[in-house]
Automatic annotation (TrEMBL):
It is found in: Cell membrane. The lineage of its organism: Bacteria, Bacillati, Bacillota, Bacilli, Bacillales. PANTHER family: ATP-BINDING CASSETTE SUB-FAMILY B MEMBER 10, MITOCHONDRIAL (PTHR43394:SF1), ATP-DEPENDENT PERMEASE MDL1, MITOCHONDRIAL (PTHR43394). SMART domains: AAA. Residues 31-315 form the ABC transmembrane type-1 domain. One of its GO terms (molecular function) is ATP hydrolysis activity. It comes from the Bacteria. SUPFAM superfamilies: ABC transporter transmembrane region, P-loop containing nucleoside triphosphate hydrolases. It is a multi-pass membrane protein. This is ABC transporter. It comes from Paenibacillus durus (Paenibacillus azotofixans).
Length: 591
């Protein structure tokens, strides 16, 4: 059996492999960046060596020409190094931006392919966090953490080699303090990591409160129930915790920093002491001692930074895990084995013994079998929660059935190409969703190439054209978030017009339960009559007029069909149906 440690190493390896895959397309730029970092780290040791030459040769020899030469060399190396750093930062920024650009678009495409149930279960804020802050965190990893890691490692190596070449005994003496850096930094790093995780949790809570209470529906709910003070206090508490945690995180290890500062001054002091002794013995020059001390500072700085990078590296690992976790989720199969083009002669929809459950062992639909005939209206009626919406959601394959089959014409929907299946279905939902744009933009969502005349024809058929024209900006009127500036009836008629523009052979309609005024209802009814004409339509019916007009009515109860027929037939033979009608439309509804 694999131990925990082994499996963590395995995961780490897999993550590194995938990070490498992300960088691979930019290997040339990456190679350049590494070369530049190598050159700048080598150039970085030059000034110390030059100082040694100045002290040991130019000054005692009173050689002004050599002094000018050495100072110029130092200046030139600094200028070259700075110029290279600019280039390197341009390269690493463009590499990281390109990687993020690719990841973001790939992730969006991937999420688009996810099955519908994913979006009904996952927290919406979570998706946005991964698409935004996690991805920008990853950009920081490519642009900061990785570059810092490579550059500090190179600085460390170049300085270490130079020191060893200069005098290995002095080098070892100067380095005795190094282990003292590493161990406590790791400990402080772990404390900071723990605090960072807690901060992240509080930040998510903060986002959740903001998201929920300042979204259009949440805001309304908060106002109606007078919950402003409670919500604002909740946010205050959470943001107070966040700020406390952040203060703790940033001040964690301040004692450690203090001790480290003392230790860093120990190294040079030892060099002065032992180097001074060697100087007195005539074994070493003053220049060498000065060069050593400056190089030592160059050694301590990257060690300190590398130890601090530990926290960033562990954090980055978590970020990558979150991003890759999304990529590993299985998308919905868009096309099954046969990619049949759509050539069904009729568009009869046939449910054959369909069973479905959202959760294991909790069947929602049981042995559903019926035919919705082409050119006819099939109405679904039944108590709330009986499974009507679930039945219609199975047709465009928003959910996959557990057993049985659904055919359109002669084709099993599972063998149809998903985009082509959906292109033949028009969906009018209870709650019409409109994007925050103009009425025209919302209509064009159904058919981007529609002409103005087509739009007008569709809106006339949906009995909404006159209303739109009465608005000061007509079709260019902005509808607000989720179409908040329009009434329920207006929104539904716009959504009918949108489906009319698409003109699919199959229409699925979930009638609004909310009561509309008689005029709105009248217009919607007229619009519906037009919409459903010569289509295969399935309507979740809430209005008596729809039920009466339907060719066939299916009575659904607890996930089963318990009756089928026309309104009159069902009234005669089905007690439950009669009861349902009486409940919904009153005892004396028109027979
Ligand atoms: N996404 C979901 N995950 C889990 N269970 C669900 C989900 N959607 C619906 N259900 C459950 O499935 C059952 C059928 O729901 P469905 O929405 O199909 O009923 P309905 O007849 O359309 O109700 P209504 O008339 O109130 O809209 C209900 O018990 C509901 O709680």
């Amino acid at each position: 059996m694999r131990t925990n440690k082994e499996s963590r190493t395995g995961t780490k390896k897999a993550i590194f492999k995938r990070i490498f895959e992300c960088i691979k397309p930019y290997w040339r730029q990456t190679l350049f960046t590494i070369i530049i970092l190598c050159i700048t780290s080598l150039l970085g040791v030059l000034p110390s060596i030059i100082v040694q030459q100045i002290i040991d040769r130019a000054l005692p020899g009173k050689d002004f020409n050599l002094l000018v030469l050495l100072v110029s060399c130092s200046l030139i190396s600094t200028v070259i190094s700075s110029l290279l750093s600019v280039w390197q930062s341009y390269l690493s920024t463009s590499i990281s931006q390109n990687i993020i650009y690719n990841l973001k678009n790939k992730m969006y495409r991937h999420l688009q392919e996810m099955p519908y149930h994913f979006f009904t279960t996952v927290n919406q804020g979570e998706i946005i966090t991964r698409m935004s802050s996690d991805l920008s965190g990853i950009q920081g990893v490519f642009n900061g953490t990785i570059v810092n890691f490579v550059s500090n490692t190179l600085i460390l190596m170049s300085t270490f080699i130079t020191l060893m070449l200069m005098d290995w005994k002095l080098a070892l003496l100067g380095m005795f303090a190094l282990p003292l850096f590493v161990f406590p930094t790791k400990k402080v790093g772990n404390i900071r990591l723990k605090l960072a995780k807690q901060t992240q949790q509080q930040l998510s809570l903060e986002n959740q409160i903001i998201n929920e209470t300042l979204s259009i529906s949440g805001f309304k709910l908060m106002k109606i129930f007078n919950q402003e003070i409670k919500e604002s206090e909740a946010l205050q508490t959470v943001s107070f915790n966040t700020s406390r945690l952040q203060i703790k995180e940033f001040t964690a290890g301040r004692w450690f920093v203090m001790i480290m500062t003392v230790f860093t001054s120990f190294g040079p002091l030892l060099i002065y002491l032992y180097g001074g002794f060697l100087f007195i013995q005539g074994e070493i020059s003053i220049g060498a001692i000065v060069a050593f001390v400056t190089l030592l500072a160059r050694l301590y700085a990257p060690v300190g930074q590398l130890s601090n990078l530990y926290v960033d590296i562990v954090r980055s690992e978590a970020l990558f895990e979150r991003i890759f976790e999304y990529f590993d989720m299985k998308p919905q199969t868009t096309a099954s084995i046969s990619l049949s083009p759509w050539n069904v002669a009729t568009h009869d929809i046939v449910f054959n013994n369909v069973n479905f459950a959202y959760q294991m062992n909790k069947p929602v639909l049981k042995n559903i079998s019926f035919t919705a005939y082409s050119g006819k209206v099939t109405a679904l009626v039944g108590p709330s929660g009986s499974g009507k919406t679930t039945i219609v959601n199975l047709i465009p394959r928003l959910y996959e059935i557990n057993s049985g089959s659904i055919n359109i014409g002669d084709e099993d929907i599972c063998s149809l190409n998903l985009p082509s299946l959906r292109s033949k279905i028009g969906l009018v939902t209870q709650e019409t969703y409109l994007f925050n744009g103009t009425i025209k933009e919302n209509l064009l969502y159904a058919k981007s190439e529609a002409t103005d005349q087509e739009i007008i024809t569709a809106c006339e058929a949906a009995y909404i054209h006159q209303f739109i024209m009465s608005l000061p900006e007509g079709y260019e009127t902005l509808v607000g978030n989720r179409g908040i500036k329009l009434s329920g009836g207006e929104k539904q008629r716009i959504s009918i017009a949108r489906v009319l523009l698409k003109n699919p052979p199959i229409i699925i309609m979930d009638e609004a339960t909310s009561s509309l005024d008689t005029l709105s209802e009248y217009y919607i009814q007229k619009a519906m009559n037009y919409l459903l004409k010569e289509k295969t339509s399935i309507v979740i019916a809430h209005r008596l007029s729809t039920i009466k007009n339907a060719s066939n009515i299916l009575v659904i109860k607890e996930g089963s069909i318990i009756g089928e027929g026309t309104h009159d037939e069902l009234l005669k033979k089905n007690g439950i149906y009669k009861e349902l009608c009486e409940k919904q439309f009153g005892k004396d509804f028109a027979y």
